[in-house]
């Protein structure tokens, strides 16, 4: 019995002590750090918005470029031209050859060539060739075709230049006027 009386009160305290330890709230590890200002949160939010916007624009640009490439492959040049002229994305971070501007130049060239094969004097095809950028690989080819289809104007303008020298005389010299040399004083 001695053992029961000694272990009795300790056994009653032991479970409550365990319960107190379990229910005791741990100290929050975040509260131990120095709090940061709100502007840091705002800057992070703005940065994430900009990054997500750029990522979304890049995905849309990839989709438009892929759709235009498919249209060019299917010989639907007008659809590719309409897609690429309506997508004003810059050529940043694009691999060479897949820029929307270069694809537009390719579609313009191929559509113009198809039209010129059907009708060699098609003015719309010549206008498309004129739209090709000078930085494009299709520019030289387009210029050759434009030279072949160029008709000189029937009216030719001529210009020339003449050099006229004026000598300035000092104002203190007496310069004869036409009236003083003829003797005409202006009276009847």
Describe this structure as you would to a colleague:
The model has no long low-confidence stretch (mean pLDDT 76). The chain has a domain at 42-150. The protein is elongated, with a radius of gyration of 44 Å. The longest helix has 36 residues, at 38-73. It is mainly alpha-helical. It has helices spanning 2-23, 38-73, 77-85, 100-118, 123-130, 139-148, 178-182. Helix 2 runs antiparallel to helix 3 and helix 4 (100-118) runs antiparallel to helix 5 (123-130). The protein is 58% helix and 0% strand.
SSE ordering? HHHHHHH
Mind summarizing the main beta sheet?
A: none
Q: Count helical runs.
A: 7
Multimerization state: single chain
Strand-residue fraction? under 5%
List the uncertain runs: none
User: Mean pLDDT, rounded to whole units?
Assistant: 76
Q: Give Rg in angstroms.
A: 44 Å
Number of strands: 0
Key words describing this protein structure:
single chain, about 190 residues, mainly alpha
């Amino acid at each position: 019995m001695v053992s029961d009386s000694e272990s009795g009160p300790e056994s009653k305290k032991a479970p409550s002590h365990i319960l107190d330890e379990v229910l005791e709230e741990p100290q929050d590890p975040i509260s131990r750090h120095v709090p940061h200002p709100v502007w840091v949160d705002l800057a992070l939010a703005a940065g994430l918005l900009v990054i997500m916007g750029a990522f979304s624009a890049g995905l849309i640009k990839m989709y438009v470029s892929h759709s235009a490439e498919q249209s060019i492959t299917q010989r639907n040049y007008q659809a590719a031209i309409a897609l690429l002229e309506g997508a004003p994305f810059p050529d940043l971070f694009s691999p060479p050859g897949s820029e929307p501007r270069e694809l537009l130049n390719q579609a313009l060239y191929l559509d113009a060539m198809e039209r010129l094969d059907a009708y060699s004097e098609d003015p719309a095809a010549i206008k498309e060739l004129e739209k090709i950028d000078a930085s494009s690989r299709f520019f030289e080819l387009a210029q050759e075709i434009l030279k072949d289809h160029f008709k000189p104007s029937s009216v030719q303008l001529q210009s020339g230049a003449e050099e006229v020298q004026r000598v300035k005389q000092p104002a203190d010299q007496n310069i004869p006027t036409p009236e003083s040399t003829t003797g005409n004083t202006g009276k009847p």
